Prior knowledge:
Shape: elongated
Strand order of the largest sheet: 3-4-5
Strand content: over 45%
Number of domains: 1
Structural class: mainly beta
Largest sheet: 3 strands, antiparallel
Bound molecules: zinc ion
Order of helices and strands: EEEEE
Distance between the termini: 10 Å
Amino acid sequence: MLERLSASCESCDRPLNDEKQVITFERNGCIRHVYECSCRAVTITVSRD
Ligand SMILES: [Zn+2]
């Protein structure tokens, strides 16, 4: 598994973890992780392979 930067919700600043990860996709060589927080805000993080 790839290393990820720790992410927090852009709305409520709660830490995001794998349980909240809903989508992973790749674009231009970067893996993007989409998280949905329990506050319903969506945060996208990018990690390079
Ligand atoms: Zn949140």
